[in-house]
Structure formats: structure tokens, C-alpha cells
Amino acid sequence: MAWGANSRSSSRSSFRNSPFSDFGSYMVVKNRKLQEQFNAEASSSSNSCSNSGKPLFHGVSIFVDGFTVPSSQELRGYMLKFGGRFVNYFSRHRVTHIICSNLPDSKIKNLRSFSGGLPVVKPTWVLDSVAANKLLNWVPYQLDQLASETHNQPTLSAFFALKSCAVSVDAATRLTDQMKSEAEDPLLKGGTIKGDNLS
């Protein structure tokens, strides 16, 4: 018997004995329990309101990705205190903002594909919104790596405009070169053949 084979079969049998049919159903139950815990804490904490009378982060649901300052637990506390939501496991349907400080390039690519265009902002957006006692625009707080790519990346129409412009320049250059060579060619100058008379 191979090493670890015994543990694999025991984990399979223990999963069969669990109340979950698969991992997906387990995660659904886990997320529901975490949401119920958050709701219980939120109902017992006093929500601080903004100037409009609604809680400051009303309608905002954050997911924290990676290491942040303040920590994800502190950000969770701000959401509890100011009427927002905190999601432990990313769901495009439940999250309105992704909070992170810095991500490696590979994670940026993944983030772009799974986030579906959600705002990816620094944690200072939460802190500054609390300090201003109003929900601030997230654009200035966009993650630097995404903001620089957004501004530097040309659009598809710009690519085709540059390409057609380059084709036009190439065609004009070729035509100019051809005209110069024809003008310098003694056989073609003036439309007659110069030099020795041919009989």
C-alpha cells in the first residue's frame, strides 16, 4: 500500500458521511453561516449614519484580497460600524468593491477576469470615507497597478487608427521613393531615352 493511500480513502469516506453532497454545497452553507454571524453582529452594533441619515456604507459590500493596512478584520469592523457588508469569499453577485493594497501581476490578471469590472480600491478609500463622513468616489483610490494600465493601454480603435495611419505612411513613402527613383533614372527622365540614339 502506498504512503497516504489510507488517509485518502478515509477522507473520502468521511466526506460521504458528511451532510454535504459536494464541496459547493459545503461552501454555500459556510457562506450563509458567515453572513448570519455578520448580520447578528451588525444588528447588535450601532450603525453610524452619514449626513443623509442612511448608514455611511449602505449598499457597499467589500471583499478584501491579500494583506492590507488596516487589516481585513479592521475593515470588517468599519463595515459593521458604518452599515456596509463584508464578504469572506468572493462572489461577483454579492461584492460591490474589492479592497487590496498591492498584488502580483499574475493575481492582477486573475482579478481582471473574475471581478467582472468591479472597482478594485485601496483600503484608504474606506478610511477617508469614514473621515469625511460620506461615501467618496472610488476612482482616485483605484489600485495603482490597474489605474496605470487603464490609462496607458490603448483602445482597440486607436490600434486600428495607428495601423491604418502606418499603412498610409508606408504607401506614401513607397510612392515618394518610386517617384524619386523614376526622376533620377536617365531612361525615364522626360519620357524619352537619352544617351546613344538607337536606330
From TrEMBL:
Gene Ontology cellular-component terms listed: nucleus
Instruction: Name the source's superkingdom.
Output: Eukaryota
Which biological processes are named by the entry's GO terms?
error-free translesion synthesis; error-prone translesion synthesis
Record-annotated BRCT domain positions: 52-143
Q: Which InterPro entries match?
A: BRCT_dom, BRCT_dom_sf
CDD domains in the cross-refs: BRCT_Rev1
Name this protein carries in UniProt: BRCT domain-containing protein
Organism encoding this protein: Nyssa sinensis
